Every structure is written in C-alpha cells, then in structure tokens.
User: Fold this.
Amino acid sequence: MSSFTTISVSQYALEAIQSTNKQLATSWVRWCAEKYSFDSNEALKCLEEMDVKVQFKAEISEQKSGKQATKQSKIPIPFNPKIQDDKCCALVYNEGLFTQCDNDPVNGEKYCVKCNSSELVEGVPECGNTTMRLATPLMDYKDSRGRKVKHYTEILKKKKITIEIAKAHFEEIGLSNLPEEHFAIPEKVERRGRPKKEKKEIVSVSPVNDIFADLAKDSETDSISEVSVKTPSAVKETAEEKKAKKEAVEAEKNAKKEAAEAEKKAKKEAAEAEKKAKKEAAEAEKKAKKEAAEAEKKAKKEAEKLAKNEAKKSKKEEVKKVEEPKVQEAKVEEPKVQEAKVEEAKVQETKVEEAKVQETKVEEAKVEEAQKIKVKRIEIDGKKYLKTAENIVYDEESQEEVGTYDPIENKIIFAEEDEEDDGEEVEEEEYEE
Assistant:
C-alpha cells in the first residue's frame, strides 16, 4: 500500500500545518487505541512501517481571482499608424497612449461632437490630432500640456498582462500589423539609491517524509504525551487552554502597560513637583533679596537724613555765631530806621492823596466830555428798550447797547457779543422818525 499526496501551501502556513497534523494524528490514534483496546505505541510503529507519506511543498502561485482575470481581459490598444478615415481625427489620452478617437465625426468636419465641445488649443483638441501624431516619432509625441507618450509595455506591466497575451489578443481581433516598437521593452534608467531586494521564490521546504515515524519516536520518549488526548474532547480542552493562555498573555500585557503608564505618570508628577518646588524656592529667594534690598535702601536713606540734619544743625549754629554781632548793631540802628520809615510813610501818603485828587479831576472831565444820545422808548415782546434815530437799541435799565432795531420786521437784532460801554450817557428824548 503506497500513496503520495502533494499539498501546495504558502511558506507562512507550513509550520502550522505540520504541528496541527501531528497533534491530530496522535490524538486519533490514541483515541482509537482506547476504544478498540490496542496499544497506541505499537499502532504508531505499524504506521511507521507502512509506506504512508505526506509531503509539503511551498510555492508561489500566479493564479488570479475571477475579478482580476476579468479586469485583465480588457487590454488597451496602442496607437495604430494606420488611421481610420471614417473616425474622428482627434487623439484621446487613453492612459498616456494617445490613440485615435473611435467616435464618428460631425458631417463635414474632422472631429466628433465630444472633441469639438472640449477645450481647443488653436482650433485643435487638447491631446492633438492624428496628423500631429504621425508627424513625430512614435514615442516622442507630446500634447499641448507637455504630457509624453507612455510606453505600451509599462501599461501592460501596470495591468499585469504579459506581452504574449496582448499579441494573441490583437491577432484575434485583426490587429497583427501594430508596430513592434510598442512591444520592445525599453532600457531601464539607472537610479540612485539603495537597490531593491529581490524576492526569492521558495520552490520547496524540507518535506516531512513520514509524519508517523516522528510520532512513533515521540511516543517512545514520552515527549508527545503532552499534546496527546485520549478523546475528541481533548481538542476542545486544548482550545480552552489556548484561550486561557491568550487571556493570560493579554492580562500580562495590560498589566505591563498599566504599570508603564503608572510609572510614566509618577515620573511626570515627580517632575512637576520638582519644577514647582524649584519655582517656589526661586520666588522665595527673589522675595528675600527684594526685602533685603528695601531694608538696606531704607537704612541708607535714614542715615543720609540723619547726617543731613546734623549738617544743617551745625551750619545753623555757625550762622548764629556769625550773625550775633550784626544783630547787636541792628538793635542800635533800629530807632533810626523806624524814624526813616515814618518819614517815608508820610511822603507816600501825600503822594497817594495827590493822585486821588488828580484821578477825580480826570473822571469829572470824562463825564463832562461824554456825549449825550437822544433816544426813544419802545416796547418789543413786552420789554421796554431805548432806540436811537440810527436804530441802535439800548437796555432801559442798564443803558447798555443790546443790538439794532429792524423797523420792517419790528424786531431787535441782538449783537453776538457784548461791547464795552464807551462812556456815552443815554438821554431819553423824543425825536421825529
């Protein structure tokens, strides 16, 4: 009896599959041994003698999903120098390939409705037209915005389509006459920097030629008893243990995280407390220095004041000593001074009286010189005024000029500012208007 089964898996899952198969095989062999009453170790040895092999092989698969395959089936068509005369002559961007527009042109015009309605540059669509495309080399064309042609192989690489698939597709649709330049891979431009790491394809990983041989060896050394379970309920218990272990790991992780956060918080609080203490100490030191400076300033000021008072006192005593003889002499001369002051006061009184007499004469002369003004009493708005022939109006009581009389409106136009009395005496007298 011989069988050979090949299971293609990724490298990541290889170790997990090996471990799982080993545990499952051991569990079921021991469960069968307990149920059917046979030696599990002897059964494992028998399985070792049988030619039952499971080989694992890790390989990189290039198979794509149905959605990706559908996407790849839509292969773009590069620029065809064979222009279709019955189509629009404008170029479309088409992922950077700048190909001919496949819409029908408007009657009598070169472009279709869509290309005509787009932004035109000197009467030409933004991407240009077929005449301009043919006038330049295949890969050197630029449109009005300065965009260059992208190589067709770059588009295929982006869409993950091989050149062979694209050529086969074009043969099927009758486009086998496309320029070969589209399919020639351009030389790569050397770039500076660290080179990319090449992905190494893993063809195979050390195969497990006989899993049961390993199980038999483990049964002999009793090392496998840790993972073997007598009944299928062992799988459930193992899952519970895994769950408990996972929870323990998460709890430990959370505890460490909380401890780290608590330690970080404690450090932060300690740093803030230290900073606060330093700040308070600095403020206290600053305050003490300020108080000391103020006390020193106050003591200095008091000392200067005391010294100044002492100097003033001593100076006063010196002046007193110097002026005592002068005071004695002044006392002797005092009667003479008093007599002189009396004589001078009499002279001054005589002069004042003469000045008063002279002033009285001047006032009398001014009064005599004052002209008398003839006025007429009038009453306006219930108040009596005195009016001259020149329509100048005076107040009846104070006899001061208050304004001018308007005979037409029969009202007084009052002066904006009071004028000083010019000394004229107002005499009430009737006159002819």
